[in-house]
Amino acid sequence: MSDTGSIGPLVSDEFVIPKASSRAFRVEQGQHLRVIAHEGKQVADLRFLNAADPAEQFSSWLSISLNRIAGTGGTRRLQTLHSALPRQNLMATVVSDDAGRHQFYGQCIAAFYDKMGQPGHANCAELFEECLAPHGIGMANLDDTSVFNVFMPVRYLDDELGTYEFLGPSCEPGDAIVFRAEMDLLVAATSCPEETIVNDFDPKGMMYQILDPPG
Ligand SMILES: [Zn+2]
Known about the structure:
There is one protein chain. By secondary structure, the protein is mainly β. It has one domain (8-211). The chain is 12% helix and 33% strand. Zinc ion (ZN) binds at residues 45, 107-108, 124, 192, 194.
């Protein structure tokens, strides 16, 4: 497991989101959010919203585009997370990343499991809905693509068609990614319930630490 190093040792909150469940929580500007694959190979789906104005949300395509232009990332890695048009504000910065390969497109939904012969299966879209409902935010208030899928690598198969396949999670037990909040954030997170290679055929929980800034 990586240490918190210059991030500072002050853990203001620590909790586990058990497998196939979700939670929404605040991370104040300047605090760090550490997402830890404490049980091993598992994907976490994260949404970032402005705590003061939840209509302002992380945008995948805008963040991918700005990182590509800045040379700091692309479709597998981001250094900076930005909100959607028209605001385009910096919401969070990745300050540490043990795995380095992620995905920023969508979430599992009921229709996927219907097609896989598992109707009624838990899915990240409904898990987001559950944890954000107390904040007055429904599925219709969320962009369906703009999800930061932590530790979820894909491999591109055909450059012309753009087809791709999912690989197993990019993390080893104890690996972490750390975000610095650049505004007061409402973060919604799921421990993805998919029993495929996406979660190494064994969905698990994920640990979260909220760290106060040093000094
Ligand atoms: Zn999922």
